[in-house]
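Reply to dn_fold:

You asked what the input looked like. This is it:
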Amino acid sequence: MAVALAASAAEPVDFARDIAPLFEKRCHACHGPRTQMNGLRLDDRAAALKGGNGGPVLVPGKSAESRLLRLVAGLEDKKIMPPAGPRLTQREVGLLRAWIDQGANWPDLPGTASAPTSRPTHWSFQPIARPKPPPTRNETWARNPIDRFVLARLERENIEPSPEADRRTLIRRVTFDLTGLPPAPADVAAFLLDNRPEAYERVVDRLLESPHYGERWARHWLDLARYADSDGYEKDYVRPHAWRWRHWVIESFNQDKPFNQFTIEQIAGDLLPNATVEQRIATGFHRNTLTNREGGVNIEQFRVEQVIDRAATAGTVWLGLSTGCAQCHDHKYDPITQKEFYQLYAFFNNADEYEIDAPLAGEMGPYLQKLPEYRRKRDELLSKYRVSELQGPWEARMKEARANPGRWTDWDHAYDALQKYLDHADRILNLPVEKRSRKWTDAITDHFVINYHRVIGKDEWKELKFTDLRKQLNELKDSYPRLSEAPIIAEDPAIRRKSNIHLRGDWKRKGAEVQPGVPGFLHGFEPAGPATRLDFAAWLVSPRNPLTARVTVNRFWQEFFGRGVVRTSDDFGAQGEKPTHPELLDWLAGRFMDSGWRVKALHRLIVTSAAYRQSSRARPEIDVRDAAHTLLARQSRLRLPAESVRDAALSVSELLYPAIGGKSVRPPIPKGVVELSYGGSVKWPESEGRDRYRRGLYILFQRTVPYPMLMNFDAPDANTAACRRERSNTPLQALNLLNDPVFVEAAQALAARVLREGSGDRVDRLFEIALARTPSPREREWVEAYLHKQVQLLERNPKQAEELFPLDLPGHARVETAAWTALSSAVLNLDEFITRE
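and this is what came back:
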């Protein structure tokens, strides 16, 4: 190596032939040709000449003063390039030296910071076209422009579309698709009797105005937002106020909030001028990241992880790109550099987590009326147990422990617990007592009462009777009205963090500083001043953005047809699939934006199309030609989403409590499930009364031990954005439907309903309620034979009849009610019941 450094090659060095291959070959070990190390840049000639902390990377004509030579030769302490893979050979080092001594001729490299990239040719990155619906030979089938795109493709393949589904199938299909619930028998009957030309459109309009519409489409958005009611990781603490953002989402869909406004409020509602409480609540989208409260973890590390997750999730949800793949290196397939990822990261890096009061209607009056009394009683308790007297010195020692880590192990442990278990611990500790909000004052006092034993020992803690105090404080709090709260993000002008590239994604290894910015290969980004999250939100929904509208309409289409026009709804990049109907996708995206980003208008357009109304009956003659069902020659049979499977059973049995919004609930859960949590730390106090029968949307989602029924039916795990759900078919699902307490109760209630309402043919009534149709003659024979057999079995086993239907139903023998319960359970287990035809 010394020989190579001593003399330059006599022959001229050609950059393209001799030097560029070294950058391409070697620098990928440091994150691709756009290498950065503590300010050292090889992707930008100007930056290389300027250099970093160790001096200029390059001094043209002076290789001895160029840091690059020292690094590749391993002459700097503990630093070498490349940091991984084979070292440069003596010949290669000599070429670099000669190139520098000859003036370091460095032409602009395609794709580097010094030379703007040309616009990628990938289809999804192109501007949205405004294609006209194509002509078709069949001029009578199309009901709206969607159908002409679908039909034109079918005609090119010489395939006829399927006939329209029968009316019973149609109303059941569209009711599930728009509300997530089955149609009521009265609604089915009314539709069958309505002979007006626009009878179906009237059904659609009624469903779009149903408050259950917001619930159904909120569930779709919650999947994308990785919503859960707990932190995740080992502790997995419940987030008691997470539901408030979910409530906002439901209301937004019911109000038909324009999708561009819906986007801006969630990305940056706190930055809007004179932001309302509701607009600030919207930023709760970003509070669905996981939170690590394990002892000993580094708080800053997991703050960084949360910011990374927010940047990656925004890229997935609105752009349909795997931007998170550029966390550690330039994206391998899409034109997203690591620098650009951390420019997205920079938008979120100065946002911190907060909680605000977010009262629902009717909460404020009772709260204000009782607040003085509550404060007086709380202060009396704290005074009785000398809390203020003890808490002051404890806080002082906490600050000392923070300033002197390792000096007092017991106080180190206590301070670590303070950071992990009390949100905003350092912010609160740094504020003088008189400047703290009442919420923060109560929070640190409650933490002190619970955790003081960490420094005084449990014996002395018990002598102080803090166990009794903790119990009394909780009881007092529960006995008074409280305001709903909402988790949000917001920026503190006093806190300005620098954002850097993290080398190899390591939060501790910071490279060059970056400013907020967007991927350069997309449409322009020209904020009026320093770029903010609000600028980023406006950029996402700009009419020039080729991705947001395409990605969004594709996911809506996916919900109505089982697959998107682009099947990979999570990836519109180079690794994703091409659209099956590209003109249709662009027409929908353009229509969506031109209509003011109105979601209900788009949904109405789709569900009133002839393509949507087709029968889902299989067609063997085209299955060979279109096995993936991409031509839309028929509708798809879709297993209901997990929540709708449960909701349907509760609805037809009239057990469903249809309240809209509000807190999460804990319905009965199989024994032994919560014990699977870490150390048995998760508790599951079952909800009582009507709350046991709320929709699946409201079931508390505990990340480490999620509700088993939902997971059996393919609900996502809520750790990352879920752009589409899988649909499996397993024995566990059948066992769930047979034995889960909710479905047992649903079968009992459905049996009672049929016996109560079925003054005529009860078998017909059962099928009308559960399946929106009457039974065929063959089905009727099967049902009657099954009932007869069940009666015989139960007459020989009265105890089993008691277990199947434990209540007395006036006018009906226990054996009869039990037999109908068994039949109802069988119907609730039918594939047809849990399938949207």
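DSSP finds 37 helices and eight strands in the chain.
Hope that clears it up.
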